[in-house]
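TASK: fixed-backbone design
INPUT:
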């Protein structure tokens, strides 16, 4: 039954290697990577909003000053 020389020796190791490789490729290419995008700080968000034109220069400078003051405290 299982003694047809497929599970004798190192053959089962290759199935483990192939399975782990497939799992690594699947989970490595999934679109969710929470750690890389969630580390955006308040200054980064403020700069992006200013670059997109959502806020004016005066508002950008005021909010930047408030954020920097909060980090110093």
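OUTPUT:
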């Amino acid at each position: 039954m299982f003694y047809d020389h497929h599970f004798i020796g190192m053959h089962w190791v290759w199935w483990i290697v192939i399975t782990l490789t497939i799992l690594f490729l699947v989970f490595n290419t999934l679109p969710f990577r929470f750690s890389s995008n969630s580390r955006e700080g308040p200054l980064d968000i403020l700069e992006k909003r200013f670059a997109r034109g959502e806020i004016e220069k005066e508002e950008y400078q005021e909010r930047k000053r408030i954020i920097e003051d909060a980090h110093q405290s």
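COMMENT: Residues 11-72 form one domain.
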